[in-house]
Every structure is written in C-alpha cells, then in structure tokens.
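Archive maintenance. Older records in this collection stored only the sequence; we are now back-filling the structure field for every entry so that each record is complete. The fields below show one back-filled record exactly as it appears after the update. Entries are processed alphabetically, and Class II aldolase/adducin N-terminal domain-containing protein is next in the queue.

ARCHIVE ENTRY
Title: Class II aldolase/adducin N-terminal domain-containing protein
Organism field: Cyclotella atomus
Length field: 659
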Amino acid sequence: MSAKKRVSIAAPKDSQRPSRTRPKLAHQNSLPNFTPAAYSSDEDETFLHPNDPSAPGTGWTNGSIPPQFTPAVTLHPYTRSGRLALYGHHRRWINFASSWSRIGSNASSLDATHSESSKGESVMEKCPKEEGRTVKALVAQLCERFYNMGWATGTGGGVSIRVGGPSEGRDFRVFVAPSGVQKEDMVGDDVFELDMDQNIVEPPKTPNLRTSACTPLWFVVYKHRPKAMCVIHTHSMHAQLATMLDPTEEADSIKITHLEMLKGVGHHAYDDVLEVPIIDNRPTEDQLADQLEEAVLKYPKCNAVLVRRHGIYAWGDSWEQAKAQCESFDYLFETAVKLKSMGIDCGIKPVKGTYRVEESDASMGEEEKKEESSPAKKTPDPAFNAAGAANNDGDLALTNTTIPLLPCDAKTLLLDIEGTTSSISFVKDILFPYVRNNLEEYVSKLSNEQVANYAYAVKKDIKNLASDHPSVLACRDLVEDAEFAVKNLIARVLALMDNDVKATGLKALQGDMWKSGYESGAFQGHIYSDFKPMLDWCKSNNVRVCIYSSGSIAAQKLLFGHTKEGDLTGYFDSHFDTTTGDKKVSTSYTAIAKVLDVEPSKIVFATDSEAEIKAAREAGMMAVMAVRPGNAPLSEDVKRDYPMVRSLLQLCGDEEVQI
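Back-filled structure field:
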C-alpha cells in the first residue's frame, strides 16, 4: 500500500485572489462617503442639486430629483444627508401654510384648555391654482391616512377643507371628497371644489364622480361654526361602539371626564365633563342634516357629533386641528368602551386616582393643632340685631347660575315670547288653530295681487328647505297654474304649519290673519300675571325692555297691543324677529347687541328654549331660563349650568331690595 502524500495548499497571490467586495450599484458611483470631518451644512444642496444650485428647495420632497437616483431608490433616503434633509425641514403632510400648533396664538402653553390652534402663514394664497391643487392633494392624503387607520374602509367617510374667507379678503373655497371612491386610492384629481352655496366651481378631472353624500352635513357645520375650516367624517369602530354604550340606545349624548386626552378635543380640560351629542342614523347620509344642525346648536362647546351605529363628524379651525381632535375623540371613545367592559362609567368623576390638595398635619401650626385637640367650642348663633354686617361680597358675585337683577346687573332686558311672557298653549291652541280654521275664507277674499305676493313669499320659504323636507314633498305635485293659485297657496301654508316651520313668508301671512282676529275681538293676547308688574318695575328703574321672537314684529305688536291689561306696546324699546337672524345662532344676539349699542355682557336674555339660551350665552349675554307650566322639560346640563326663574319678577331688584 502506497504512503499518502501530504500536500500543502499555498494561498494565492493578491493579484489572483477573487474579489469579495460587493460591486457598487450604478447610482452609488457619484455618492460621497460620509465622514463627520467632511460633512458641512450645505452638503444637502450639493448632494441633491449638484448641477443646479438654484433648484427650488432642498431635501427629498421639494425640487427636482437628482438624475443618479432610480425611482426605487428615491422612495427611501439611504444617506445621512438625505435623512437630515427629509426630517430636518420637510414635513410629511402636503400643506399650504408654514406651520401649525394645537395651542392658539393668543393662548399660553400652560393653559389647561385650548379652544383654537395657531395655523401659521399661508404660503400660496396669491397663487389660487397651486392652492387648489395642493388642497385637493391634501384631501386625498388625509383620506388615505384615515383608511389606513380603519376609519374609511369600504369607500366610507370623507374630508372637506375650506380656505380663504372674509378674514383673507376673498370668498371661501370649499374642497370635498367624492362619493364611492376607494379612500386609499384617492388622488387630488378626484376632489370637487365648491362655493359656500354648494355650487360646483371646478369638477374633478376624473370623470363620472359624484359629490359625497356628506356634503350637506359639512355645510351645516360651516354655517354654524364660522371658524371651522375642516370637517372630517369617519366610520371609526370606536365611535360607533360609543354610541351603543347605552343598552337602550336612547341616550342623546355620551359624557366623558377625567382623562388627559380631553385636552385634545377643544374647550375642555382634564377634569371637565365632555358631552358629545348622539343623533340617530337615517337610511341616507343627507337626511341627517336637520338632526346634525340641531345637535351643533344645542352643544356649542363640543366639536363633534356622533351618529348612532354609524360614525362621527368632527371639525376644527384648521385641517390639522380637525385631524388632531378627531384622533383625540377616537382615543376617548376607545377608552370609554374599554372602561365599560371593566364596569367603569367614563362619565363619573373618579373617587380616587386624581391629585387633590388636602390639608395635612404637616401644614398645620402648633396653635391649630391645640385648637383641634381641645373640646369643640360651640359657635354662637348670630343675634337678630347683629353688632355689624359681615362682608359677603363673594356670595353676591355673579356666576353662571346666579339670577341677574335689573337694574343692578344690567339695564337692558331682552325677552322671548312663547313660554316666557306668554303661554305656549296660547300660540298652539288659539293662534295657530285660528289660522288653520279661517285660512280658506281669508285667502278667498284676497285680490289676485295679494295672492301672488303671499304665494311668492311662501314658495321662497319652501325653496329654502332641504329637498327631502316633508313640506317640500307635500307640495311637489302642485300644478303651477293661475287657476290653482288660491288652492296652491293654501296647500303650501298648511304644509309649512303641519311641520312647524318658522319662516318669514308664512309668518307674514299669519300675522295679517291674527290682526283681523285681534281687531274683531276673536281673541286677546295672553300674558302671565307677573309680566305687567315686571314691565312697571323696569319702566320706573329705566330698564330698556326689548322683544326677540320667531314671530314677526307685526305679530309681536298685535299680541301685546291686545292683552287683558290693555295695550302694552309703549313699554318696549325695540322688537326683533328672524329677519335679524336665527334665534339658535350666537351671531344673532351679537347683532342685536350692536343695534342696541350695548355690550352683550350688559344684556339679560330670558327664554324657554335651550338652544336659544346657549346661543345667547355664547354671544356673551346673561342668559336666564324661564320655567313656565307647559314648557318643554329641561335637560340636566341646563338645570346645572343656567339660572332659572319661575316668575319674571325674580329679575327685579337692585343692591338694597329684591322683589
């Protein structure tokens, strides 16, 4: 057997060694290696725009893309320079303003409650075409984000953003997402531009699209929240489940308190009680408009409305604020649902777990400890003839629930009529039936010109209603012909009255009919027994008394001119009706104060309507709830937050005497 030969394998020469170095990709040949010593602050410009230093902007999201990058590589900043450029001074969101903060420009960063945001400065208001292109792209970007969060699946949800407005000396431009489009695949070319009358200013470039069914609801918010610049609608699972925490599904709101994220929804601090209204769902989205409007007016402090078994509408004074608040609401609803599963009610103040300042032995002096340990001394009851009056100015100070006194706290009184000075049943059981029972006879005696004038005004009332309003539907089959003018006028008046519509044209006709009723002695204007003495007090103390009612000014004067106490019209300084504005909107009360040349804070307003009392307080007036027999039951928050009077004489008093 031959011996094995040991073989030594020599290492190859360097020139023969196969290279193990990975070859550079084509786009890497021109990239400099990074070293701390070699880096300078202007490297980004050289790196990104080596041949064109004048190219706009720097980084990865602005300006032209360097030719050495392939499309696949440009998706990610592979170099430190690229990452610094991207995250150093380029935001991820498409925008048309320079910066944003949840804290408003006039607020302190230490405030517990934030009600507005700081929007930054517009960078393209002088370039409307580019502004429109940018906002449309932003709407698409937001919809994609909400899809990824599970808020806009199945083409649901949507976004509306508006820009411009009187503060910028131009008309609003309103951009809305389309209907039925995959939200994760939306592009700016899918977005509509509208004006504030919901007319299409510029349709999307994508053909065959329709405006979102949410559109009427977005405009409800824009109408009643003048500062709102963005409205978001989502089908968030947390929002939907929050509407069903009440097993009866009859709750008209959800209350949440003592959670840190309350600060993120506007107007609320950690220990406030957030009350978010809930409205019932309808077969189609646009049918929710009336319910949404009522909720927006009833809850002026809340920036969102929940739709039962559906989702949420949220808004803000910028798109960033709306997005931040929508995220905060969702967090709170998720917390509420999970707390419910733990048996905890999110609307009840926790007994423990929240910081409280409590007096301890460490904070007590020696004398205090001795007094505490000694037998309790009985505090003598004050004698009838006390030696001197105590200083209780703090108890006399006005609060939100203190009944204001005339003329001590104000010298202008603004009054509602129905349920305040006069019984609701008088209007419901006397005035309205009189119109209904005598309408045909009254109209048949009118001249053709009078019929035409009334018909024009009442048609306008109906035209201002939503297309699916019951009054509109009741009149859609009327034949427009001179032969049927009287019949059509009667039909339209009854359609409006059947649905309790308060409109200017209808009120004018009713007022004229009531005038004939008053003058013929068919009825007298009803007033409560305390009303005349209250008027006498105000007259003797130089307090101006004004009326603000949904009834026309002519109807107001007819009622007070034909009472059992005689003609009372001489007691009133001014009259206002719905021509001044909607009684449920704060701007109407601001307008009245301006006409009267009085600061809103120096006006007392008394009414039986919850929506009106909240609107008046929002305008700055001292709002008082009138509680009369037959008025609608009050909600718990109104009972808690507003002064209530059972007689208007409770408003009469000065520093020394109160009746």
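Update note: The longest strand covers residues 158-164. Residues 319-341 form the longest helix (23 residues).
Entry marked complete.
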